[in-house]
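so i finally got all the pieces together for this one. its two components total, 487 residues if u count the protein bits. some of the lines might not be protein, just check the labels. i wanna see the whole assembly predicted at once instead of chain by chain like last time, that was a mess tbh
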Amino acid sequence: MTQWRFLWSAAFAGSVLALSGCATMHGPGQEAATPSRPPLQTFNHTMFHLNMGLYDYVLEPVSTGYKAVTPGFVRTGVSNVFSNVGMPYIFINDFLQGRVQQGMEDMSRFLVNSVFGLGGLFDVADRLDLPMHDNSLGVTLGVWGVPQGPYLVLPFYGPSSLRSLPGLAMVMFTGPAYYVTSTPAQYALTGMGIINTGYVDGPKIRMVQEAVDPYQFMRNAWEQHEQYLISGGVVSKSQLLEGLSLPPAAASAGSPAASESSPQKKGKH
Amino acid sequence: MRLKKTVLLSTVLALSMVPVLPAWAGTAAAASASAAATKAKTPQATIDSLDAALLKAMQGGSKIGYHGRYAIVSPVVRQVYDFPRIASLTLGDYWTKLSPAQQKTFVDVLAEYTAATYAARFDSYAGEHFAVVSSQAMQPGTEGVFSTLTMHNGKVHRFDYLLQQHDGQWRIVNVVADGVSDLSLKRAEYMEAIKSKGFPVLVAHLKAQIASYANGKS
């Protein structure tokens, strides 16, 4: 039932969710019927369908082939390695948010898997009760009180916002590909990362595609999950009860996609 | 994940073997899970019975197939969720504009869609476990139950349930998974679908998705 960051956990996972963003079954026709859509909304819908197309016609077939030619333990090992190299990005943000215990757990997870798990190939930390957490620079900025800004769907990456954009650079600088000097090795690492993303995030992407309105679903889920991470994984009583209030017809039909700007989405709350 | 080339095989299996083996296995399991759901007199017992059914379906996995998992999950889901209440909360003002027949259709489809989604997505077991962490009275007749699902890799997902008491039975009206409200997602999607395409198209989409799960195409 997701992921990711909501569904979408690690850095690559998030990006591929975007890649996933392409269920065309219900979106396009419906969007075309909307008159005079603002430019940012047009951009987001275009990127969403581009990403979903990339998943359907590139990532999903590649992922299918990957599963056909590799045994399960190899795929698990590759997935573990990519998950492990994404951990510095996670625990640096844990500490930047002042969440020391979570940061220590994530850093310990990284060190244990790197040393005793042969560079992250084996998930030894799992047996030591060191759970994995989601985090990002966008969440850090939210904790610091920076508003979300406009919702964005980025090509190849997926759901994001103005506040989350600096995180793309941070992912790059904290990942191994940036420090590899050999061009072929960079290509290999990037290619393998994309294949792994398709493999790991396939179920989450299909969950988006199965929705009645995939664009709405992805945006709504991403924004809610981002707020959840900013609040430190706490669902308040008022949030839980919010569902019981019947929305007025006009407001409920409008929902998030009515406007790409989200001024109400503050940081800490 | 399912390979496209296995779709045909899955369909054939669904039409032939599934009614025999998995359904038989599923019926016995479903009976006990459903009985547990019937006894659910407290909010926590309601969630426990849902978790037990999901775990049983997951453990059955591909051995019992989608139809076997559906047979386990469906009666419990229909018992523990308050679908008429969920339907009215989801559609807001539009709910009162539907005829009683349309309301019944929507409630039935919503129940089947929820059970089918569980059966399709909770399809394997690798040591995951559910746990109810706490519960809290929210309002008179409304209670929150906070639970977790721990994955095989140690990652913990939160499932926060909102339940209301109706006819002496505690039933779920909303689930918030890792901060994402199911009711909120449905509200935004369904209302937009009704506004742009109409109620019959929404119902047709949900039915098509149920068929897709049953045929192994999702």
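Strands of chain B lie at 129-139, 142-150, 156-166, 169-177, 180-181.
Residues 1-30 of chain B have pLDDT under 50 and may be disordered.
anyway lmk what u think
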